[in-house]
Amino acid sequence: MDKQGKELCSTATTTTIVTFQAARPPQLPTCHHLHATYESPSRSLHTTDAVVYFTATFPLLLLFVLLIRGLTLDGAMDGVIYYLKPDLEKLKNTQVWLDAANQVFFSYAICKGMIITMGSYNDYKYNSYRDCLFLSCLNSGVSLIAGFAIFSVLGFMAKEQGVRIEDVAVSGPGLAFIAYPKALTLMPMPQFWGCLFFFMLFLLGLDSEFVGLETMIAAFVDLYPVWFKKPWRKELVLAGLCCIQFLIGISMITNGGVYVFHIFDNYAATGWCLLFLGMMECIAVSWFFGIERFWKHVCEMIGFEPTIPWFKWSWAVITPLSTSVLMVISLVFYKRLKYHTYVYPDWALVICWLMTLSSISWVPGYALYFFFYETKGDLKQRWQQCITPKGETTLKTSKGLTDEAGDFLEMEPFYNEGSESARKMEDSTPGVEQALVDQQPPKYEDIGHSV
């Protein structure tokens, strides 16, 4: 099994990080937040893991406290009924479906590289199938419970002010930073509940930043493993990433910051970007790499073959079909971006679409580059080389590789030059060493230990 197969299988692997995203806050650029975000990933993966155990689980405790308090308020049941009663007319609005898809992508950190990065640290024989089902149910359950916590308080607020619930139920940053805090001021001991709520938001933002930075720095180290062997280079790159995010975040807390935030919230790695990337990932894995081959690798990793291969059906048909249909429909019924009554001008829309293209253009761009500059032959031969997994290409072009070497590359993608099997393969098959090294650059954790 090659590197590509194992990394793709790792997408089914989940981490211990479970965040509720019903009131996802913008990342406030405070100095304390910047320092805390830098400090943990700069230490090691084990440090980040220990910190995330607290930042991911403690907000759940705070959420249950707010839920219990909210359900005891007068008018809470009105908010709960409003939360559970569906409005079928809104299902005709394509934006509702797009927002629902965004919620799923954000809540599960899909198409952001986070699950792949965190999953790559698991053992090869790991039951990711079980954990995937468990954490999926847990994550969706927490989001459902968060809705009860929010709408119970909004029902109380609506009754106190004598207005309808839809008049106080706002979406976006206004819910987390205006409507809900305002409702907390109507409770007894508002200072306590306000501090509790914003501390929970701070931990959620910090938790997301840990994993995001870990993903970016791991990608850089995988690309340039030798360069990062020098001391402090990883820390300097991480500090630079934090400063860039800090400067971008500063623009969102100015007087017009909410309009900047609304642009990022709708066009930066969201909406069409995630739908497109999700569709491309499923097509690359299921149609080009081969769904049967990928499913074989998954079953080998988890140790059994599920009775109903519904994951396989989802990867091959359901997900690419649903994401493509939703993306096309949302583009057909596209509406000009606006925030409340403010309609964004043309120059702002140009920036919005440039941000969208900055995420999705790399996929067709690199595909064209690889097709014209990295392949040889006529068009058919070039296309065949593009859709052939790298492991197979290596086996076909390397000289002197036996079937045994092919099995080695298929079953052990992460080459360990100190292993007995690797040394045996090097002695018996000349030229396989470089092919194996190219399969997987060392992680920065391994580099740190060797230095």
Summed up:
With 451 residues, this protein is mainly alpha-helical. It is 71% helix and 1% strand.
Strand content: under 5%
Q: Please bin the fraction of helical residues.
A: over 70%
In total, the number of strands is 2
From the alpha-carbon coordinates, what is the Rg to the nearest angstrom? 24 Å
How many H/I helical runs? Answer: 22
Shape: globular
Report strand order across the widest sheet: 1-2
Write the H/E string, N to C.
Answer: HHHHHHHHHHHHHHEEHHHHHHHH
Distance between the termini: 29 Å
The low-pLDDT segments are 1-30, 397-426, 428-451
Record keyword descriptors for this entry:
single chain; 451 residues; mainly alpha; two-stranded antiparallel ribbon; 22 helices; 2 strands; 71% helix; disordered N terminus; disordered C terminus
